[in-house]
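Sorry to interrupt, but I need a hand with the structure work. It will help me judge whether the discrete encoding reads sensibly. Write everything out right here, beneath this request:
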Amino acid sequence: MRSRTSMLTILALTISLAAPGFTVFCVAASGSASPHNAILSGVVRDSQGVPQMGAIIQLLTADATTVATAFTDDHGRYIIEAVLPGSYQLRATAAFFLPASRQNVRLLAGAQAIVNLTMSTMGEAANWLPAQKRRAEEPVDDWKWTLRSSANRPLLRLADDDILVSSSADNAHKSSLRGEVSVTSGDGGFGQGGIHQILLLDRTIENGDGAVLRADVSGSRSPYPVSPSAEIVAGYERRSPFGGSTRMVTSFQSHPELTDGASAGAQIMRMASTEEFKFGDTIVLDAGSLLQAERMEFTRLSSEPFVRLEVHPSDGLLIEYRFASGRDLQSSEDLDNLKPALRLLTDGSGRPLSTKGSHHEVSISHKFGNRAIQLAAYTDHLDNVAINGSGVLDAGDLASIAAILADPTTGSFALASPNYSGHGVSISLVQPITPSLAAWFGYDRGTAMESDLDPTSPVEGAVKGISTHNTYAASASLRGKILRTGTTVRTEYRWQPPRTLTQVNAFNAPAQDAYFGIYVRQRLWCGHLIPGGIDAVIEATNLLEQGYQPVVASDGHLVFLAQAPRAIQGGFAFNF
């Protein structure tokens, strides 16, 4: 039998050399052709979508015993026939590429299974490392850029519909237009009141360049009849032939419901641009800047540059340095978030305050099998940190507090606390559970603002009772998609000491992700009328209302300081 297998192998290689157009090379399939056997086929490509000729395909049992071997043709195709039904492993190897594998490949009697594989170089594989602890905040409609086509997405940067690792390069260079219309409502957070109608358009062309547009307009917000709020984001990405990219995103936000007692209505204009350069498989340089204009009674202009340097000294090891002067733009991937953060603060007279800062971080990441771990040390300085709150304040409260911005339509507000500096360390671990679902664990030790107030403290003196402390935070998260049901889920619990009012690692964890939060998106219906289907979406922040610090308003009723006031929103998304 071994002699026969060897001769078949030689014969297959001879045919492949003699006939470049020959479609399939397959040898050593177990058993003989039978209607009760299964067939396995597919295409092998690199991360840019180029078919790979001459890759070796191995079909293995659970104990790693080779059942069959095949070779890809000049179109990257392979086929393995006459395989006994069962569960197998599939592995692809080729020169200058890391092996690609697929677990739990189930073959049924008399059926043909198609499994496509994507192979990565060593430099691309290092992108699996948690190069940067990505923020969990995402837009209510859960829309992310679909322009990046890297097959190995960093586990800490999983983006819902892009989580599947089954050959994302298949659609990497196909021209496409995607759209979505969604309607959401509920108990919104700061600046998110009322019913929201959201339109999203995403255009990708064959060379990988693309553009995206998001428009969000709110409806009525009784009993406060103010004009609708609006957020418009437009972005463009141009791919570099050398592996980098250029991105530009412009956004405009109008929130007429916001007031500081002296003036009402706020507008924010932003323009962000980034450049990413790749020097071989070893060095990645990412730099950019965010230009911002904020206006209430007065206008403030600011610029927030960033620099990020990645070095890959060896396979599975990543060293990174980051400098950022703002929390909203710390890398090119931050432009994936199409819902701009609302960080506006004022001095009480209609003059916007600076929320800039500085962040220096050095991190080391290492990959162990499919598990990745990261250690980081950082130093921070932040200007005018926002202290969030829940409760309706009257005109007397707004007049007595020096630096406050209130949203009466949602009963929430933000106080400006003094500047502070700090330093800390963090550790994070990411563990895939299935090809589309991953668990993430993190621990941070650093500086945060904590409350020393008692429940009878007046709200106008709340800032004086807040000071910096060295504290910690621990978090666990489950992110991804459940394949059987098609449910996209993101649930996280980030615990800090109850009197903590800001996040410990300010540049890596948004305030609204404190305590228990959940996001679920479920496909309800798909038909000819709406080919993309209808999804139900629900998102909750601090669902258990933890970390609330009571203070007393001027008329004696209680309001609460909270790192993340509870907010629940839900609705439907129509995809086309």
User: Anything to note?
Assistant: The chain has two domains: 2-119, 124-575. The helical segments are 2-18, 122-125, 395-400. Residues 1-32, 122-173 have pLDDT under 50 and may be disordered. The two ends are 55 Å apart (CA to CA).
